[in-house]
Specification:
about 230 residues, alpha+beta, 7-stranded mixed β-sheet, two-stranded antiparallel sheet, 7 helices, 11 strands, about 30% helix
Length: about 230
Amino acid sequence: MHSVPASEPRVLSTVARGPGGSAGFVETAWLPATRTFELRYACVDDLPVKIDGWGRESLEKSRGLPTVVYFSLKQLKRLGVPQGGLRVVRQPLVRDLLSLLQLHRLRRKHPGLPTVELARHTRSSHWLDAIARLSGHTARTLRVDEDRAVRREIGELLEYLERLAPDPDLRRALNDAALQRFDFRRCDVMLTDYGLEMGVHVPSRISVSVKSPPPAKTPPLIEIVSLQPEAQ
């Protein structure tokens, strides 16, 4: 593999294969020029909800990490992000169904509150906060980017994502179950495709290395990992 300049953006995708033929996909990027870590895509609903084996704090050690956070932290290391080197953790395109449903319910319940205050209580925001915290950073600000946001019937987005799923019928059934839990329907108009941007900093007690590592070998565009239990 060839080397890339330390200042060039780097992208890493992970395809994970889980029990029963399940599969998921996580893609992240490191933008050294702006010291930004991006969670670009996260399709993990068919994988185990949490994964053991990582965590600095007792909660994560005892209960495991959300699958998206687990893979994001692994990719953050693989991408060569220097210790304490982040200034922004971002999800440019929020299409996580649970996050969209949570935000829509909160907007109905609290119509006078700014979207950013409501978005703090969604799963996507919790993902970004955990990535920042477990990589040695603390969240300072949160911004909702609506430049590319779309207000549309949620069923329109779901039908598109279901067509891409390995098992469209199963994905549709799971999506319908999620809608039912929130008492929503596919014809409900919701805010989708917005972005979340979290400004972070390093607590003073932690040493910072903002210098990027020397040019490294380009990480593979896609890596495949298995979450299958080892054969006994």
